[in-house]
Amino acid sequence: MFDLDFARSQFPAFSAPALKGWGFFENAGGSYACARTIAALNDVYTQMKVQPYHAHPAARRLGERMDESRVLWAGALGLEPDEVHFGPSTSQNAYVLERAFADLIGPGDEIVVTNQDHEANSGAWRRLAEARGAKLKEWRVEPQSGRLLLEHLAELLSPRVKLVTAPHCSNILGRENPVAEIVRLAHEAGALAVIDGVSWAPHAIPDVGALGADVYLFSLYKVFGVHQGLMAVRRPLFERLPNQGHFFNAGLNAKRLVPAGPDHAQVAAAGAVVDYIDDLAARHALRADSPRARAAGVSALWRAHETALLAPLLDWLARHPRARVLGSTEADARRAPTISLATERAPAELAAELAKRSIMAGAGHFYAYRLLEALGLDPERGVLRLSFVHYTSPAEVDSLMKALDAVL
Ligand SMILES: Cc1ncc(COP(=O)(O)O)c(C=O)c1O
């Protein structure tokens, strides 16, 4: 049984006077930070806010913390530390990858993108195809359900396809895509696979090693951590990608794909979320002796709690006369608690009404512009999005339902 009180006690936001009484339902945009993250940042800013990796003790400590973040996340994700890169955000990481991939793509090649993705994992690859004279192929969602079907991907693949990009989960529809199968199909065709895990990682820390994607991207500020993008690049691909940093740094693994000067404090504090995951594993006496096993065990607890809260909410919304849930209304293990509603009243108005009732929610297209168009919706009008994570309580979901009933 998930110890919700313990989890909530690890988030200072729940005892902050400014947030008291508010139900937080815009977690897909960015989560609260756990106490471990805040303490780690505070520690860096007070104890070691110096330039890292020099000879004096504070510089050495800071450098060690930054290295340790890589080790911690590699353990949780089933990777090697040199496969983990921290950049300013997922959008920025994709932008740098777009440049790095330019050497790998040329005229006659093909790139597969989806219209389900957030623009971060779409625009970059569309621009790359155009710049390199490659053919762009769009793997389109079913217009009713918003689902991406594997058979449609299979039809697009051929030896000319060099790159397949897809989301692990849509930030609008909340359903997990079959990433391992997507990657397998891409690899069988001889293509690389780039997966955007931003919307899935907050709900289940992925086994990136096992999923097999050549690149896996997600944003730590949505996973209870610092505002950084984590980019996993598997070794064989990393070795093929040209250096994107200063020429004299070409031999430095951490700088090759992150041309931005690193935010030392945030990189140093990035690993604190893995400590929080370990705290949860210990609290629940999970018998798991590897970091990956602990991440998997804690993810299973998160998923069970989220699904138990999601089921009655989805059920109620599915029957509501003045709202339409986009995508699936089944609360199973592959459904993240991210719900988007097409509503009679303007979504922005509804979000403002909810705010009057102490509910934090968002309205808009959430940068999934192409998906809303594919679903026949006006992206400028957008949707009302409600999203929660493992620290959300049944009482908060109840108050959301009451507030929604009043405003819809
Ligand atoms: C699914 C998805 N991908 C990518 C991004 C972009 O992430 P970042 O804000 O770190 O650039 C977001 C942000 O909302 C997202 O939801």
CATH topology assignment of the largest domain: Aspartate Aminotransferase, domain 2
End-to-end CA span? 34 Å
**Main sheet strand line-up:** 2-8-7-6-5-3-4
* Largest sheet entry: 7 strands, mixed
Structure class: alpha/beta
Give helix % range.
40-55%
Return the CATH architecture of the largest domain.
3-Layer(aba) Sandwich
The CATH class of the largest domain is identified as: Alpha Beta
- Give a count of the beta strands, DSSP E runs of length 2 or more: 13
| Rg, alpha carbons | 21 Å
The hetero molecules present are: pyridoxal-5'-phosphate
* Count of distinct structural domains: 2
Instruction: Give the CA-based shape.
Output: globular
For CATH, the homologous superfamily of the largest domain is named as Type I PLP-dependent aspartate aminotransferase-like (Major domain)
Low-confidence stretches: none
- The oligomerization state is single chain
